[in-house]
Automatic annotation (TrEMBL):
<dbReference type="Pfam" id="PF04107">
    <property type="entry name" value="GCS2"/>
</dbReference>
<dbReference type="InterPro" id="IPR006336">
    <property type="entry name" value="GCS2"/>
</dbReference>
<dbReference type="InterPro" id="IPR014746">
    <property type="entry name" value="Gln_synth/guanido_kin_cat_dom"/>
</dbReference>
<protein>
    <recommendedName>
        <fullName>UCP012666 family protein</fullName>
    </recommendedName>
</protein>
<dbReference type="InterPro" id="IPR050141">
    <property type="entry name" value="GCL_type2/YbdK_subfam"/>
</dbReference>
<dbReference type="InterPro" id="IPR016602">
    <property type="entry name" value="UCP012666"/>
</dbReference>
<dbReference type="GO" id="GO:0016879">
    <property type="term" value="F:ligase activity, forming carbon-nitrogen bonds"/>
</dbReference>
Length: 519
């Protein structure tokens, strides 16, 4: 850590002061207000304020920026990570995320019907197309991926992720967005001495949560029509989490300089996991005494979902300003929910009573190679949430422990691991039989939402292709690295060649193609 330099990228003159203001908030008072807010929220839930007449879908979509190669000083800098100018985010209409290299899009919520799904896909493509044009003017490209692996030109990944400064005793990550919440995590009274990244053959310690900026994801949202039914949908979401994660694995490699000294390429390929994104998020944010990221337990009632947020450990007790919005009546609880990270989590909000909603945020899926593949996961999750509870599908009887085991097996091995499922006939099934049942019911859920058979099959086709071919994005990446190693490249060179090919193929297919076109 070094002393503060006013010219350091990402630092603002008053950031440390704003972090100190947050740290001055009385934690006990914050907790008491969150608990009081929870009672307000539960009363509104009982009164039916959060009930709606239809299901609603939405999507959060994260990207990172890389050099497009036009102005690179050397071939080694092609597709290297780049910081996104803050003014450019505004021009794109995107939001800042944890790292300066990140950009996030949030779609407008739409009814779950054929028009709503088309609107989701069209909005993503329209806004992303415009954003790519903005980025190109700066010599950069936005990438949809699970984890970046080529660090910024002239820097190592370790330097980029661990660089920090001190300003008046406040630790500030140099390459982190100037969001007070993110910086405050490293400075509170319960903050650990360091934040540790732990994965096979990878270990990294940082003064801040910046190592979490390695990863990017998509997060489908499904709004339930009746809030009281949220737990039943939620428990089904836990059972589909492992199988859907397995099809979406897309982060088998870290940047080369993060691997331990002496580890071989063969060891990295043999021991590495298919979705290291899961390990990054859990190990970094669970550093110290906090257990912030986890596969959640089943819910019994919708009130239980509210209570879990109240009972979650508080990292950043930030004050809130209350206005005239409906959800300002539980603003402190909403603030606490911002650091309530679970792989599947309930959300309650709405600017007005008429827009109040109870929804499920599905967080296991990494950024995907193409928009169509990303929308496929959104549609599959929505279809399953629409169909499985209505059918009382017997997979709800799958033990929670088995659902959790499925999730972490999927993290390690993708669809090639031993995932278990109960099919519609009540039989224990694995492998192709699992996915046949899963995707049939995702299709039937889309049909219930008004999609034609042709439309439903269109949305799910990218996932069916992965089942039929046995190839996930993680498999594709491993194969490319193995091929390069077979040509006598060292691991770092092989990794860079793979990552460049990923970006180049995506350049041709992100908006209009599909991952299956890559092989």
């Amino acid at each position: 850590m070094k002393a503060f330099d006013a010219g350091t990228p990402g630092m603002s003159d008053d950031l440390a002061e704003r972090v100190e203001d947050v740290l001055a908030v009385d934690a006990a008072e914050f907790e008491a207000q969150a608990k009081a807010d929870a009672e307000v929220l539960k009363r509104e839930l009982r009164e039916g304020t959060f009930d709606n007449h239809q299901s609603i879908v939405g999507l959060e979509y994260e990207f990172y920026a890389v050099s497009d190669g036009r102005w690179s000083a050397s071939e080694d800098d092609v597709h290297a990570l780049m910081r996104v100018p803050r003014r450019l985010l505004g021009l794109m209409g995107f939001e800042k995320e944890l790292g300066l290299h990140n950009a996030e899009m949030t779609t407008s919520p739409q009814p779950l019907n054929p028009h709503g799904l088309r609107a989701q896909e069209s909005e993503v493509r329209a806004r992303l197309d415009a954003a790519l044009d903005c980025a190109a003017a700066e010599g950069m490209r936005l990438v949809s991926d699970g984890m970046w692996s080529i660090p910024p030109a002239g820097e190592s990944a370790r330097e980029y992720l661990t660089d920090s400064v001190t300003d008046g005793g406040v630790r500030l990550a140099t390459n982190m967005s100037n969001s007070v919440r993110y910086h405050a995590m490293a400075n509170g009274p319960t903050a650990p001495e360091s934040f540790t990244l732990d994965a096979p053959h990878v270990s990294l310690e940082a003064d801040t949560v910046m190592p979490e900026a390695l990863i990017t994801s998509i997060q489908p949202h499904y709004q339930v029509p009746h809030a009281a039914d949220l737990p039943y949908h939620f428990n089904y979401a836990l059972r589909v989490a492992g199988p859907l994660l397995a099809l979406g694995v897309n982060s088998p490699f870290f940047p080369a300089d993060l691997y331990d000294d002496g580890v071989t390429a063969d060891e990295i390929l043999a021991d590495g996991w298919d979705e290291n994104r899961i390990a990054v998020f859990e190990s970094v944010l669970n550093s110290g005494d906090h257990e912030k990221v986890a596969f959640p337990g089943d819910l019994d009632t919708v009130e239980d979902a509210v209570d879990r947020v109240v009972e979650d450990s508080t990292m950043v007790p930030m004050s809130v300003e209350r206005g005239d919005r409906f959800d300002d009546d539980f603003a402190t609880l909403r603030r606490k929910h911002g650091t309530y990270w679970r792989w599947v989590r309930p959300v309650f909000d709405g600017a007005s009573r008429s827009s109040a909603n109870a929804r499920i945020e599905f967080r296991p899926i990494a950024g995907q190679p193409t928009v169509r593949d990303s929308v496929a996961f959104q549609a599959a999750f929505a279809g399953l949430m629409e169909r499985l509870p209505r059918l009382d599908h017997p997979v709800i009887d799958l033990d929670w422990e088995t659902a959790e085991e499925n999730f972490y097996t999927a993290m390690r091995e993708g669809p090639h691991g031993d995932l278990r499922w109960i099919d519609v006939d009540g039989d224990d099934v694995v492998g192709a039989d699992l996915y046949e049942d899963l995707l049939v019911h995702a299709r039937d859920g889309l049909r219930l939402a008004g999609c034609s058979e042709e439309e439903a099959n269109y949305y799910l086709e990218p996932l069916r292709k992965r089942v039929e071919t046995g190839v996930t994005p993680a498999d594709w990446k491993r194969a490319r690295v193995r091929d390069a190693l077979g040509d006598a490249d060292d691991f770092e060179t092989a990794l860079r060649e793979m990552q460049r090919e990923y970006v180049e193929r995506q350049s041709d297919s992100l908006l209009e193609g599909a991952f299956a076109d890559w092989f």
